[in-house]
Specification:
single chain, alpha+beta, Ribosomal Protein S5, domain 2, Alpha-Beta Plaits, 2 domains, four-stranded antiparallel sheet, 12 strands, Ribsml_uS5_D2-typ_fold_subgr, transferase
Length: 304
């Protein structure tokens, strides 16, 4: 007997960094995600196979008490082991993985940062009937908006109101200019995150700043005018720039862009969102001339 569980990928359109301090974030689940298929082997070991769009990328075999017996990647096998131990403790059955073969399939390139970790956590939590937020807290940490997106049916507002459970509210994000919203892949590893985190520890954001970001998140979900949406994107970028002490993406790369550019998630990391006032062909030409060749329409990837 085998069964398959699936979780959505995610993007945080508004609220990065400050969602950890109580700001409301606007987040979207994606059409792409990760599946996890489990079946009994009749043996004692746990066999784990991880695949993505280019095939098998990781495998490991664990004993019934999760000792690594063989693997293609020792550090990753150790990390997975710790996740499984945490999941077993929450399930109150540490041997739950014995005699199982689990195959995961990531539906997007792992370097895109669309939620390879959060979809894994949510899939495990669904299978074991445990709280995904608790499992996230014991493993990767973070606000948990990505966990909320993993099972969401459409765009959401996300707010941390207590340590136990976040406030998750369904919303709509379908502006008339949706076809003008682009995603671009920065294709650069985030190497300033440590400094940003230290900066945030030393300088806590003001209550007024958190309220401003919450207001922007709500306004972005209902805005009908592309010009007003551009103003919201630029206001958000300016606020976060001041909070974390980093220049905006537009200041760094796109000062002559006709429209607005906004970081998504950790600044300098994976994707940015752009609202372009140029025709599609000109928009593609602009970003490709800057060296950003992976461009997607937001309307083509959002789950709604």
């Amino acid at each position: 007997m085998s069964y398959t569980i699936r979780s959505n990928g995610k993007l945080l359109l508004a609220g990065e960094y400050l969602v950890l301090f109580g700001a409301t974030g606007l987040a979207i689940p994606l059409q792409k995600g990760q599946t996890m298929t489990c079946h009994n082997t009749g043996g004692d070991d746990l066999i784990w196979k991880a695949t993505h769009i280019n095939g098998l990328w990781f495998s490991a075999r664990y004993s019934s008490n999760l000792v690594i017996k063989e693997t293609t990647d020792a550090p990753l096998a150790e990390k997975l082991k710790n996740i499984l131990i945490a999941a077993g403790k929450l399930n109150k059955n540490p041997s739950i993985f014995s005699g199982k073969e689990i195959t995961t399939h990531l539906e997007f390139p792992p370097i895109w940062g669309w939620g390879s970790s959060s979809t894994l956590i949510n899939n495990l939590a669904q299978w074991l009937n445990i709280d995904p937020y608790q499992l996230l807290s014991l493993t990767f940490g973070g606000s948990g908006y990505d966990i909320a997106c993993a099972s969401a049916r459409g765009p959401i507002f996300f707010q941390l109101q207590s340590k136990e459970k976040p406030l998750v509210q369904n919303t709509i994000f379908n502006p008339p200019f949706m076809g003008q919203l682009w995603l671009g892949f920065l294709n650069s590893k985030q190497n300033s995150q440590k400094a940003i985190n230290q900066h945030l520890k030393n300088t806590l954001p003001a209550k007024q700043t958190i309220e401003q970001i919450t207001h922007i998140s709500h306004q972005m979900s209902i805005e009908q005018s592309p010009e007003n949406f551009i103003a919201l994107m630029e206001e958000h970028e300016s606020i976060i720039s001041d909070v974390i002490g980093c220049p905006t993406l537009k200041q760094k790369y796109f000062s002559d862009f006709k429209g607005a550019v906004k970081s998504l998630g950790a600044w300098g990391g994976d994707f940015f969102m752009a609202l372009s006032l140029m025709p599609d062909d000109k928009t593609k030409e602009y970003f490709k001339a800057k060296g950003f060749n992976t461009l997607l329409k937001l309307q083509d990837i959002i789950k709604r």
